[in-house]
């Protein structure tokens, strides 16, 4: 799999770095995220391309093994509500997708092992 560099806004970068310091992520995910942050392309908040998964974006993804699709919005923890597909920015799936773009394939360790997802579509929420 080709290695992609993350595209992050300055505010999303700060959010991720703060989370990394306090997180109880698996060693695999922590190391992966640390490396990705170090190599990321950083944008001013208003210049982040529209197809990048970020805070206040809606992502449609598919599990590459099962083909099962999921659509959810990435929000701050206090706005999270799974019943209306709003997922905390600090949820494992949000952290996994942050900074990736439409068409990217990512691997992330979930509670049931390493999973692979393809990002099908990303939309900015207004």
From TrEMBL:
Gene3D superfamilies: Transcription elongation factor, GreA/GreB, C-terminal domain. Pfam families: GreA_GreB. One of its GO terms (molecular function) is translation elongation factor activity. Residues 49-123 form the Transcription elongation factor GreA/GreB C-terminal domain. The keyword Protein biosynthesis applies. Keywords: Elongation factor, Protein biosynthesis. This is Transcription elongation factor GreA.
